[in-house]
Amino acid sequence: VFANLARAPEDPILGVTVAFNKDPSPSKLNLGVGAYRTEEGKPLVLNVVRQAEKLLVNDISRNKEYIPIVGLADFNKLSAKLILGANSPAIQENRVATVQCLSGTGSLRVGAEFLARHYHQRTVYITQPTWGNHPKVFALAGLSVKTYRYYDPTTRGLNFLGLLEDLGSAPSGAIVLLHACAHNPTGVDPTPAQWEQIRQLIRSKGLLPFFDSAYQGFASGSLDRDAEPVRMFVADGGECLVAQSYAKNLGLYGERVGALSIVCKAADVASRVESQLKLVIRPMYSSPPIHGASIVATILKDRNMYHQWTIELKEMADRIISMRQQLFNALKSRGTPGDWSHIIKQIGMFTFTGLNSKQVAFMTKEYHIYMTSDGRISMAGLSSRTVPHLADAIHAAVTR
Ligand code: LMR
């Protein structure tokens, strides 16, 4: 019955890893997927995660029973606190419904399904460009996806006027997807003053903000600072949704651990929202997995482990910042034509290089460097050892 089935294309991001794995070259370099690597090019399991896992394994009172549909209660409370701040009035007033989900993507999808069922506006605005999975997550949930201007290719910075104009002409009530920090793929974030203007516009037009927070702690190295934009929106008493991922900041990629919080105006609304979220989750995957969320909860509730996490997180963020400087210096010393200052100005895991798809294809073919065709480089995949190879490839791509 499937004889005539067309072959689906590989995923534009995860497919890069598939191609990378097939390449036998010893000098190959995967800068596609946003996953942290050490200076040795190896995946990293944080020490604090190993420590939490040991505690969990040694605790024989633990079992593998199903956890509730909404996930672990501790994990949910601590996750809301992490993103909204320990003293958030919304938390103190019990106005936040938080459910444990399958990392950032799962949190976005549960949020999108909930909105498609219960929200009157069916249009969601996403940044142009954005993470390739965003439009699919929302469209498959039944929402209509539109874009708003965000990135200016000429300055390789924010197109702030375009953003204000597009959100200003969005229909009242429309959902607006915002990257909480470290915008993917561009690495370009609004300044605090610009965020404040965005907030005022969104509130004055009655738009509904939906934050994707996949990099808390990765942009600046500070968990609190990276949560500021979200907290700004919660402080005004209005509603918003937040999808959190622990893939990057705790290195729990494959554990698929994240949370969706819906901040409401009153406690009884939040409790009804939670009851409806259960109806979204139960037929989709019944209940979430236990292990990753237990690791997160163990770390977040222990003062020492939390502190250790902040140190390891800062080390990862600092290594990425140093890669930016090294790549910038390497291109400068080669006299590579063009202004590469955006490499040090952009933040988070990615640099949006400005290289076009032909140049990317050339770098893959000739230098075995793998990256997404939009010219995005995962700086977290780079090391001091591989910077010269990448700089050679970029130089060759732009001068040929
Ligand atoms: C990325 O953008 O590389 C990451 O968010 C990984 C993914 O799932 O695409």
Automatic annotation (TrEMBL):
Enumerate the CDD domains for this protein: AAT_like (cd00609)
Q: Where is the Aminotransferase class I/classII large domain?
A: 27-394
Keyword list (alphabetical) reads: Aminotransferase, Pyridoxal phosphate, Transferase
- State any GO CC term: mitochondrion
Q: Which InterPro entries match?
A: Aminotransferase_I/II_large, Asp_trans, NHTrfase_class1_PyrdxlP-BS, PyrdxlP-dep_Trfase, PyrdxlP-dep_Trfase_major, PyrdxlP-dep_Trfase_small
Name the Pfam families on file: Aminotran_1_2
**Enzyme category, top tier:** transferase
Q: Which reaction(s) does its UniProt entry say it catalyses?
A: L-aspartate + 2-oxoglutarate = oxaloacetate + L-glutamate
The further comment given in this record reads: In eukaryotes there are cytoplasmic, mitochondrial and chloroplastic isozymes.
Protein name, please?
A: Aspartate aminotransferase
Organism whose genome encodes this protein:
Heracleum sosnowskyi
Lineage, highest ranks first:
Eukaryota, Viridiplantae, Streptophyta, Embryophyta, Tracheophyta
